[in-house]
Input
Amino acid sequence: MDKKAKILKIDYSLLMDLRIDFAFKTFVEGNLEALISLLNAIFSNAKINRVVKSVRLKNPSMNKKSFEDKLSILDVRAELEGGTDILIEMHLHGIGQLKSKTIRSWARAYSEELEAGQRYTEQPPTITIAFADGAVEPSQKPKNTKDKIHRVCMIMDIEDGTVFTQALELHYINMKAFAKAVNEADSINIHETNEDMFAYWLSVITEKEIINKDIIENARKEKEVIRMAMSAIARQSEDKIIRQAYQRRKDDIFFHQEELAKAEQYKHRAETAEAEIEKLRREIEELRAGKSL
Output
């Protein structure tokens, strides 16, 4: 990134939406310093003692075996010091299937990392970070309870909470819950985040949902890495070739969401029809039983 980036006026209406995976991938591939800062903010917010100093991008392609994998071709995949593999996914669709998808993606990536002749104990861990436009768990909490913004999942002993293995680490980040909390407080200083840089980065990623743009402007003034990141996003947003590819991807996601909605409607109609058929069957059986008497 350009370390001499100045605080120039930004037209936020023209910026690409980083919640679209193409825009996020394009941004981080050209700004590894920003990716390092984002990863450190995520781990710090989760109170995980891990400091990222360098990162190497890898080919994220993995075989797609499910309808839910249809758009999962633009994930960011990186390797940290020591060989730790990281998958970063952006999700504006299929939120209900997200837990199953991320575990499946993690399993595939983890299995690919074991080299021929390598011991299982020598295999470095795989970390999945999923940015989601909503909660990944069913809403069964009491009313007026806020959704958790950052959820970290590992394999643990259910009795004493001991971590069974470091190989599996899943981070679910609820972008919608963050933007809602910021808009309600009209401030980035919210109790749901433990780390300032984590809140700064989420405000950049969810910029389209943040009502008061002064919040982001203040972040630009306070943090050089955020200032340089916003300048990079603005430059990429003005690139005609990038913009065209971004719009195509955005349209793909929109049409895919429509497909998911139609599939859900058809499923609901089929279940309703089956229930009606079952009801009629029982009524017929009751009528026959009455006549036999």
Summary: The beta strands are 55-58, 76-80, 85-91, 126-132, 150-153, 168-174. The chain has a mean pLDDT of 83.
